[in-house]
């Protein structure tokens, strides 16, 4: 862990504390460019926005996908107060960000919040392969 990594993680933790003080869940994140400049930062606004997807990691991944070219996105690092959830990690992957550095792991978060895990939702499938593949085949380049 470099001094810069620690400095950026401390900023993410500061954003998380501000989020909690403002009535939202205590999560904060920032996106740092290849030259070490902070490109964007955000905090959780799920409660304020009444939006279950208003996680800072997801908001920054969406911002990066809109505002950064692929080469710049790949050279960025997201610093976040907690390890991204599955929803956010999927967005981070799709946005092409280069790296994530987090303070608390999911396991550590769960230890601080016993019984706070979301319930598992059953899934069924795959089904109707021959029909479902028709609109998808050939959409994604080789």
Describe this structure in words.
- This protein has 142 residues and is an alpha+beta fold.
- The protein has helices at residues 3-21, 46-49, 56-67, 70-74, 86-95, 106-112, 129-132; strands at residues 28-32, 38-43, 77-82, 99-104.
- It has a four-stranded mixed β-sheet with strand order 2-1-3-4, sandwiched between helices.
- Helix 5 (86-95) links the parallel strand 3 (77-82) and strand 4 (99-104).
- Helix 3 (56-67) packs parallel to helix 5 (86-95).
Please outline the helices and strands:
Blueprint: H1 3-21, E1 28-32, E2 38-43, H2 46-49, H3 56-67, H4 70-74, E3 77-82, H5 86-95, E4 99-104, H6 106-112, H7 129-132
Parallel strand pairs: 3-4
Antiparallel strand pairs: 1-2, 1-3
Helix pairs in contact: 3-5
In short:
The protein has 142 residues and is an alpha+beta fold. 43% of the residues lie in helices and 16% in strands.
Describe this protein with a few key phrases.
alpha+beta, 4 strands, 142 residues, four-stranded mixed beta sheet, 16% strand
Tally the helices: what do you get?
Answer: 7
Uncertain runs are: none
Task: Sketch the topology as an H/E string, one letter per element.
Answer: HEEHHHEHEHH
Q: Provide the residue-averaged pLDDT.
A: 95
What percent strand? 15-25%
Count the E strands: 4
Percent of residues in helices comes to 40-55%
> Which word captures the global form?
globular
Amino-to-carboxy terminus distance: 38 Å
Largest sheet: spatial strand order:
2-1-3-4
The biggest sheet, with number of strands, parallel, antiparallel or mixed sense and barrel status, is:
4 strands, mixed
Structural class: alpha+beta
Radius of gyration: 17 Å
């Amino acid at each position: 862990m470099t001094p810069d990594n620690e400095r950026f993680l401390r900023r993410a933790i500061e954003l998380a504390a501000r989020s909690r003080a403002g009535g939202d869940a205590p999560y904060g994140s920032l996106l740092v460019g290849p030259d070490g400049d902070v490109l964007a930062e955000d905090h959780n606004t799920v409660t304020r926005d009444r939006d279950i997807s208003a996680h800072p990691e997801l908001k920054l991944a969406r911002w990066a996908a809109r505002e950064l070219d692929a080469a710049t996105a790949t050279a960025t690092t997201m610093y976040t107060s907690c390890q991204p959830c599955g929803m956010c990690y999927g967005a981070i992957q799709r946005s092409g960000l280069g790296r994530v550095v987090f303070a608390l792991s999911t396991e550590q978060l769960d230890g601080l919040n016993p019984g706070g895990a979301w319930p598992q939702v059953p899934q069924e499938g795959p089904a109707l392969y021959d029909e479902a593949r028709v609109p998808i085949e050939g959409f994604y380049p080789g």
